[in-house]
Amino acid sequence: MDGNSQTEVSNRRTLGMFCGEIEQTRSFISETSFVKVIFDVQNFTEETYFSFDSRVEQQKEVFGRYGPNPVLYPFRRGEIVPGTYCERIFTDCKLQSCFVQSPGYPSVYPRNLHCKYYLNTRLPFIKLYIENEEFNIDGQRCENPMMCPMRPVGSDCPYDFIRIYDGKNEQAPLIGTFCGMGRFPHSIIGSGQDIMVEFISSPAGPFLNTGFHFNVGNWPGHVESAGSRNGTCDWVFSSDTVEQGQESIFLSLAHWYKAGTSCSYLIRGRPGEIVRMYFPSFRVRPIEAPIRPYDGDCGETLIIYDSDRPDDSRIMKMFCDTFSRPLEKHDFISSGSSMFVKFDSRTGSYDGSSLYYWAQYDFFNNTHYGRPVEDSVCDELFESYVRPEGRFGSPLNTLIYKTDEDVRCRYSFKAPRYQYRRILVTINDTHFKHNEDACLDCLNDAVDKIIIRDPFRNGTDVCICDSIVHSQRLPAIVVSNGPSLELSLHVDRRHATQNYFKSNIPIFEGTYKFIHSPICGPTVMAAASEGSIVYPKYEPYVYGGYGEDVHCMWEVKVSPERDLWISLERMDFSLEDCSQEVLEVEVSGRRVFTVCATAPEEARSLTVKSKDIRDGSLIVHFKSQAPGHSNFQLTWTELVELPRNSDGTIMTSKLSAPGECKFVCPGQAACIHEDLVCNGVHNCPGSNNTNMHDEAPEICYARTSAHLNYVALGLGAAGGAVVAVGVIILVCRNCRKRPENDTSF
User: Fold this and answer.
1) Homologous superfamily in CATH for domain 1-221
2) Residue 253: which of 225, 276, 280, 228 has the closest Cα?
3) CB 3.0-4.6 Å disulfide test: which of 275, 606, 612, 726 passes with 334?
4) Which fold has domain 520-528+542-627?
5) Do residues 449 and 512 lie in contact, with contact meaning Cβ atoms separated by under 8 Å?
6) What is the mean pLDDT of residues 416-432?
7) Tens digits of per-residue pLDDT, 171-183?
8) Position 219 confidence tier, pLDDT thresholds 50, 70, 90
């Protein structure tokens, strides 16, 4: 027999010994669980391999009958699928409750295997804990198996390998194919609750590889996001799904994803809302489990846009895995109603993003009562031509109170000067919360407060720090003296966040109205011996007086120690209902005079005593819902009240001042200025109801007769002079013409 024949017989004899003694090998493995059986097949010929392959079914029968080690985790290795050799089902896996092992583990696995492992957890994201586990799947063929190079774990697998699918079967997305020897560098996290592992060993190959051992659980940080998802990771979050004052969350990708993955998060609020987003937790780590390696910068990025779409001109912040520092608990605030967040990965990952973040977002009402002032946090402007009246209050966006600085919000009310406007502001309610200091001196104490300043009324600022103003409870009413008014809200920084951030109770609420339209004329009447208000000052069509209800408000100044007689000389009201059209006079906040269209004649005049005019002025209101259709003339005269002697006669000692009080009103214990007598206006009280008054003909004739004689004489003299000059001129002209006539004859 030649050498080759002897070698083949020897090999066949060795193979026969292995097959015949497999029972002994099984019992040996059972007793020594960690011993590996190695066969020297370096001298096997090709025919020998074929002979070896023909015994695979016998191998399966033996391994299937006895198992790789019945003592090793017998109740944690899943349930065998009936009629299969190595298909197993694992349900409701928890950490350390499901162990996925290759047949024969920790000993060598047989050849020509096709095993499937169906893995399931109750919660996403299912995770194969194989990081740092021994992994030994190869099946490469070498002339000397003892000298085969160890191939590291990778995806180039011509012989034995495992495939991992992100789902229940092989129709699910393929996460990856793996083979090699060594420590598996990372775990694998699925996107749901199921993963299928497929293990295939080639029909021929050495018995050198021990296979794998996986632990199954789920990633513990799974949180459901309140939004709608399109695909794997394109989300839309809406304020409709978030309760007022509450926050919602979304997380970075915690499961595997392909290279080139792009995820988007559109956070969209209602019109008038803004978005706040911050990261309670943020970590940046190197890309540890890339699917496709990348050597450049920014293999993964996270970009925040102040927009509803990617817009490079509106980037708020960009994070990169290679150089960015995490930014925790920093508020990113949109300028509009939307914010867009985009994650891009060039590398992909088997176990989640290198940019790990926990993002929280909420929405704030950023609507305004007036027009926002640029470059300010909360200032607003109210203009008469935009909205003549309305509501206003503390900022609806309570995010402004989340600050370490004092909050100052200024509300400016303005109208053009030529319109003679006034601003009527009413503070209806306040809800100031705890202050560390008591409100004793409102303007100077460091407390939350409202200050109302009238630039046309110096030194009369109104300050409100509780529900009482000037010893009176709210509402507080302030009327400007001119066409502008400024209100400012002050909130102390020491408790701004604690008291007002995310509070649904406003600090204050109020109303405003631009009153005294242009047809009312000037707002302030200076002190004088007499005066009048004529309404309308201009024709209504000039300033659009027909378009809005009228509320005129005049301030009539009164000289010290003077009484005031008021009389409605002319009145033509178009509405008879006093609630729709009325003329009123207030003295020191007390209404003393009210006239409607139906008021009798005797109710259309009033004398106000100087002792009642404590503020040096009185206020006249005219309110009408029929603007431009009514007219009136209100006159007034300053009087000096004269005391009476014990016998009832008038004491005239006060008449000594030159010109001030030289005319005593008939039947009245009062006098008026001399210049008011016979000026064409009835200035004495009750003048319309008596024959003797300051405009009586006999009084005026007696006072003016002497003056009339002097006037006549002056006119006569002036007329005579004019006639004389005319005669002289005519004579001179005739004298010049006469010589010329003589020479001509």
Assistant:
1) Spermadhesin, CUB domain (2.60.120.290)
2) 225
3) 275
4) Jelly Rolls (2.60.120)
5) no
6) 90
7) 999 999 999 988 8
8) confident
